[in-house]
Model the fold of this input.
Amino acid sequence: MNKLSSLLHQATFAGFLLLICTMIYGFSDFQRMVLYFFFGCTALEFVIDQKWRNYRWTKEKTWYSLVLLFFLLFYLYHLWEGSSTRFSYYSSFRYPLGGFAIAGLTGWNDRFRLRPVMYAFIGGSLLAMVHLLALADYSAVAGKGLLTVWQYSRIDHVNSHMVVNFFLNVSIVFIYAYLSTREGVSKGEKIALWAIGLVLAVCICLSEGRSGLLSLFIMLLLMAVIKIHQFA
Done:
């Protein structure tokens, strides 16, 4: 049972990381399959590990309950929505939110670590950037300009600027938090992560999204204030 439980924990975390890597893209059948896999493993964990035996309510679970409540509030919208088809379509995009809240309430397993999650965000960000650069229609550069061609490529092959910039900003926050709180990080890893953070910041600056750019500036300002306070 312990070996089965350990394998299940690893499978759950692997599904979680794979889901993070693909979150920057629009919701697809592949993501739906990964969601089913992740939440199925989470449900099996609850049964096999018998989590109800030592279940305790914590402050962390209070936050997850608020997330679940926020998810359920969407169903109030159905009272004023005349089309069930339209409601069903938009509600499908919110199922991951409710699922993550339930998974948090049941308790994450011991395999969950910050470092792999950070690298999953970074990997998803870099993959999306390489993807849009590789599939861009460079024959239209003369008429539209390089930045416009990249923007159209991102819309066609990745997602809207709001989703992409949000994902990139979260990746930058992860990099800053990891390097600021972890001891023993090698010099090579530090240089690589700061370089990746700089590349992601440049990608946001080249985007047409003003909210993502404003969020980046606010984040950088807060990071600078925190560093100044630490060394003051």
